[in-house]
Amino acid sequence: MELIIFLIIGALAGFAAGLFGVGGGTIIVPLLFIVFTQMDYSPDSIMHLALGTSLATIIVTSISSLMAHNKKGAVMWPVFKNLAPGLAIGCFLGAGIAGQISGLYLQLIVGVFLLWVAYKMFFGGKKQVVSHANDVAGANTELPSKPKQLAAGGVIGIASAIFGIGGGSLTVPYLTRYGVVMQKAVGTSAACGLPIAIAGALGFMFFGMQQQVDVPNTIGFVHINAFLGISIMSFFTAKLGAKVAHILSPKLLKKCFAVLLTVVGCYFLYKGLV
C-alpha cells in the first residue's frame, strides 16, 4: 500500500512538472510532507525526510532532462563546469544546515519560498516576454569570473538543499541576469540539477544517519520506497504532462499552478505557526 501511494505521488509530480514547466521538488516536498504526517512519523523528521527524498528523486529526472536539452545544444558546458563544484559543495553543506534546523522552522522557510515562486509565476508574464525579445535580438553574454560563478554555485546549492529543489528556480534567473538566452539558461540549469541532487541526497543521507532517524525503509533522511516509487512514475508522466501543456493555455496553466503553490505555502506557514 505504501509503495502505491508513492507511485501516485510520482505520477502527480511528474505530470505537474511536465505540465507547468517547473521542477518536481515544488510538488514532491508538499505531498511527501502530507503523506509522512499521515504515517505518524516524528514531526522533527518529516520535513527533513521530504526534502532529502525530493532531492534523491531529482537525480533521475535531471538525467532525463539533461539528455533532452543536450541534444538541442542548450547546455553551456563551460558554465556548468564553473558552477558545478560550488553547487555540489554548497548543497552537501546545505543538507547539514537543514539537519540543524527544526522541522517547524523548515516548514516556515519552505512555505515562504513556495509563496515567492507562486508570486514569480503569477506576475512574471511581462518579464518573460522581455526575455524572449532579448533571445531573438541575441543578447550579449557577459558572465562573472570563475571564482564568482563558483561562489554563486555555492549559494544556489545551499538554498537548493534547504528548499529540496533542483535549483532551476535560482539558476535560471542567475544566468538570464547576465544575458544568457532563456533556452540555454534552462538547459544549463537542467545540467546543474544533477550535481545538486546527488550532493544533496548524499548530504541528507549522511547527516540523517548522524541523527539516527527512527523511520523504516530510510537511509538517513532519504526514504527509499518513496524514492523508488516517485522516480519510476515521474519519469513517464512528465512526458504526458508536457504533451498536455501544448494543448492548454500556458498563461492559464502558470496562474493555476501559482494559486496551488500559494495554498500549499500558506498551509506550511499555518502548520509551522500553529
In words, what does this structure look like?
This protein is an all-alpha fold and 274 residues long. Helix content is 82%, strand content 1%. The chain is built from eleven helices and two strands; from the N terminus they run αααααααααββαα. It has helices at 2-20, 25-38, 43-71, 77-100, 103-123, 125-137, 146-163, 168-177, 182-210, 224-247, 250-273; strands at 218-219, 222-223. It has a two-stranded antiparallel ribbon. β1 (218-219) and β2 form a beta hairpin. α3 (43-71) packs across α10 and α4 (77-100) packs across α7 (146-163). The radius of gyration is 18 Å and the shape is globular. It starts with a helix and ends with a helix. The model is unreliable at 125-139 (pLDDT under 50).
Summarize the helices and strands and which ones pair or pack.
Blueprint: H1 2-20, H2 25-38, H3 43-71, H4 77-100, H5 103-123, H6 125-137, H7 146-163, H8 168-177, H9 182-210, E1 218-219, E2 222-223, H10 224-247, H11 250-273
Antiparallel strand pairs: 1-2
Helix pairs in contact: 1-2, 1-10, 2-3, 3-5, 3-9, 3-10, 4-7, 4-9, 5-11, 8-9
The helix content is: over 70%
Q: How far apart, in Å, are the first and last alpha carbons? A: 31 Å
Please work out how many helical segments DSSP would assign.
11
How confident overall, as mean pLDDT? 86
**Side-by-side strand order of the widest sheet:** 1-2
**Number of DSSP-assigned strands:** 2
The secondary-structure class comes to mainly alpha
Which parts are unreliable, with pLDDT below 50 for 5 consecutive residues or more? 125-139
β-sheet strand percentage: under 5%
- What is the C-alpha radius of gyration, as a whole number of Å? 18 Å
User: SSE order in H/E notation?
Assistant: HHHHHHHHHEEHH
Largest sheet properties: 2 strands, antiparallel
Shape: globular
